[in-house]
Design a protein that fits this description.
Layout lengths: L6 E11 L5 E11 L3 E5 L6 H8 L7 E6 L2 E2 L4 H6 L1 E4 L11 H11 L6 H10 L15 H13 L5 E5 L7 H16 L3 E5 L3 H7 L2 E6 L2 E7 H8 L1 E8 L15 E3 L5 E7 L8 H10 L4 E8 L2 H10 L11
Parallel strand pairs: 3-8, 3-9, 6-7, 7-8
Antiparallel strand pairs: 1-2, 1-4, 4-5, 9-10, 11-13, 11-14, 12-13
Helix pairs in contact: 3-5
Length: about 325
């Protein structure tokens, strides 16, 4: 199912200042589309957990409004919260209960009727069915995290928050989890995830939001973000070392390595004017330089993220929601 332009989560002017004076969120505006996978990225302490807590009713905002599927998260808390599933970072659950019982109980907490078929489908989808009678304390860390996801899905939410869902999970389980996330999105569930494995956000997300020091820095389609802020690096190995950059390349975005054996051309994804690779090769040929190798690389989402948040005084970019 493709994401629609209809927002399932709408946040306006959200701020949170704690009694200590710490300002965790500052005038956050954010809209999440129904049926999308949205990655919320930010450094430690940026406000991700506070933002999730405010939406889920775990943190009382200082100012602002939150609408979940049209329900005000403060005035109509029960209806709003019933539409949200939350998978927290911490493995917080009843360790002495069985898998099946704790997932069934979570459904009952939201006033839902017992539905054995649904619980079975959820457990099977997370490869937990064979462990349904196991006590949670006996499970591995990865399986316990799957139980948290099952609990969050038990009441059939329309929005699912995954806060560092694959932390401490091995590669095989992580792959299974992301397959499950794709299935949920196809069923119309909106997924909002935070992760330190930014390559996962690059692979999975439809849109990316970056939060820094309690403020949304930007929200953009992932492909547009990669195109606007990414860079392509062309590295050309030379057969013979150069002492200095050739006169034909002075003033261009071309650098010569210290050993004189590599020329590097960096092209910005923003589409600005610059030397094209074809023209670079033409000039090298005109200068009589022999090329021994050519390699290209592109910025990853992690490269872009690090660049955006590493400058303490970076300008605030336009938010595109």
């Amino acid at each position: 199912m493709a994401a629609s332009s209809d927002p399932v989560l709408s946040i306006r002017g959200l701020s949170k200042t704690y009694a200590t004076g710490q300002r965790a969120l500052e005038n956050v505006d954010l809209e999440i589309r129904r049926g999308e996978i949205f990655a919320l990225l930010g450094p430690n302490g940026a406000g991700k957990t506070t933002l999730i807590g405010a939406v889920c009713g775990l943190v009382q905002p200082t100012a602002g409004t939150i609408l979940v599927d049209g329900h005000d998260a403060v005035r109509d808390f029960r209806a709003a919260r019933a539409r949200i599933g939350l998978v927290p970072q911490e493995l917080a659950t009843d360790m002495f209960e069985t898998v099946h019982a704790t997932v069934s109980f979570s459904r009952g907490l939201f006033g839902k009727r017992r539905d054995r078929a649904l619980v079975e489908r959820i457990l099977r989808g997370l490869s937990l069915w064979e462990k349904r009678d196991a006590v949670i304390s006996s499970l591995s860390g990865g399986m316990k995290r799957r139980v948290l996801i099952a609990k969050a899905l038990a009441h059939e939410p329309v929005v699912l928050f995954l806060d560092e869902p694959t932390a401490g999970v091995d590669v095989e389980l992580r792959r299974d989890m992301w397959a499950m996330v794709r299935r949920l999105r196809e069923e119309g569930v909106t997924i909002i995830l935070t992760t330190h494995y930014i390559e996962e956000a690059e692979e999975m997300a439809d849109r990316v939001g970056i939060i820094d020091r309690g403020t949304i820095v930007l929200v953009e389609e992932k492909t547009d973000l990669m195109r606007r802020y990414g860079q392509t690096r062309l590295s050309i190995g030379l057969a013979e070392p150069l002492d200095t950059l050739p006169a034909e390349l002075v003033g261009e975005d071309v650098a010569l390595s210290q050993d004189g054996l590599t020329l590097t051309l960096v092209q910005s994804g923003a589409g600005g004017a610059g030397l094209e690779p074809a023209e670079l090769f033409r000039r090298l040929g005109a200068a009589g330089l022999a090329i021994s190798s050519v390699a290209t690389s592109r910025s990853s989402l992690e490269d872009i993220f690090v660049d955006l948040v590493s400058h303490r005084e970076h300008p605030r970019h336009e938010v595109r929601s």
